[in-house]
Amino acid sequence: MSNKNPVNTKKHLTLFGFFALTATMVMTVYEYPTFASSGLSLVFFLIVGGLFWFLPVALCAAEMATVKGWDTGGVYSWSGNVLGEKWGFANIFFQWFQITVGFVTMIYFILSALSYVLNWAPLNNDPMVRFFGVLIVFWALTFSQFKGTKLTAKISKIGFSIGIMIPAVILFILAIAYFATGGKSSMSLELSSMIPDFSKLNTLVVFVSFILAYAGIEASATHANEMTNVKRDYPLAILGLVILAIILNTIGGISIGAVVPADKLGLSTGVLQGYSGLLAHFGKGLDWVVRIIALLIAGGVIAEVSAWVVGPSWGMQVAGKQGLLPKSLSATNKEGVPTKFLLLQGVIVTIWTAILTFGGGGNNNLSFFTAISLTVVIYIIAYIIFFVAYIVFVLKHDDLPRAFQISKSKGIRLFFGFSGLILSIIAFGISFVPPSQLSGPGVSTTYLTILSVSFVAVLFIPFIIYHFMRKKNPLPAGQKMPDLSDGSDE
């Protein structure tokens, strides 16, 4: 069994290229309405989530990713070297599998934006049209990835610029002009409104959305070995992204909430409502501007989907090269892309699309919230394994050399590890509480049934795969984890 790095190791990713690739995975303008629905307490949630969850994920990932020989395989390598290969495989599996559900949510938004641009309601409301719309968008992006991560990086750079930064800048300028010209806020801006009402369970449910908004920053670490200077650029890119995400999300959420009343805010269309509300303050006949912005944001989400199509799949490919997947799924084309694995991923996304689109009887809100919650609970399991691995790493493997270290103090590093672990466990538990937006007879029951059955089914899959694949392809006696190092000094 080869121990060489199975992915394309050409050092072609610059600091900005890697930053853009990562940014498109964790920063999206379309999540601003979710933040706005919390009122001014969004500031509290973003800061708490950013400092005590997002930052720990970023820092812990940076530390483990820069351990010599651990820059290949992502969480499969990190958790596997610390907790054992079975847990490493479960970690990368959950990280990958959650996005097969998350793709549906992201493309739902793309269709919603296009529905607004084209003034074609069925694209957003008709289940059958939505189903085929998701498939067309996803399969087109999947086939585009067969050219390798160099193309993905280009798509990410363009998508980050036109789909995230430009719409965000326009939104901020409009918000400043709105208030400067006497615009009134629909959201209470009193400082007392910043502290959430913890006596209401729905308050905690909202926090899960903030965790999901920050999720994914560690997935791009599987591309670390493709950076021109990983030891210097990886930590810089990650830390810069944490700061920028907190600032942009805070300003964006407030900008939307200021002009769209909470009872009229739509989660999939709220960002466009925000632009419409701001522009309406300056006169009529500006709907064409909103349509252009909708296209730009849709382009940003397309770039996000593009980045996620290949992100976690690299880690699964590494595990597959070690005998944990059939050889046919680990095969790559001349660009180093696991094309057959991406085709399998596409089949799974197609199945999820059918379940989530039609499983709720065509109820758009039910489909949307179930997709979000299922993505969260699967992903949170991956984060729980990740943080447990980091804590054990600090306690038992602190002597391993790495290019980046959070602090020389073991106590500070354990603080970040336990902070992320505790918030992950809290987010997992409250994900099963039906959102207040779901109303109607039997809707909450359907939501819990689809969510619980799907989660339990997914939970056992990696352990079953690992059992049978390792029985077929056992590791050498006494070896607990394959050596993933490519033998270089990078």
From TrEMBL:
MF annotations from Gene Ontology: transmembrane transporter activity
Protein's cellular compartments: Cell membrane
GO cellular component: plasma membrane
UniProt xrefs under InterPro entries: AA/rel_permease1 (IPR002293), APC_superfamily (IPR050367)
Main location: membrane
Gene3D superfamilies, alphabetized: Amino acid/polyamine transporter I (1.20.1740.10)
Keywords per UniProt: Cell membrane, Membrane, Transmembrane, Transmembrane helix, Transport
Transmembrane stretches, start-end: 12-30, 42-62, 96-116, 128-146, 158-181, 201-224, 236-260, 288-311, 341-360, 366-393, 414-433, 445-466
PANTHER family assigned: AMINO ACID TRANSPORTER-RELATED (PTHR42770), GLUTAMATE_GAMMA-AMINOBUTYRATE ANTIPORTER-RELATED (PTHR42770:SF15)
Protein name (database record): Glutamate:gamma-aminobutyrate antiporter, GGA family
Originating organism: Anaerorhabdus furcosa
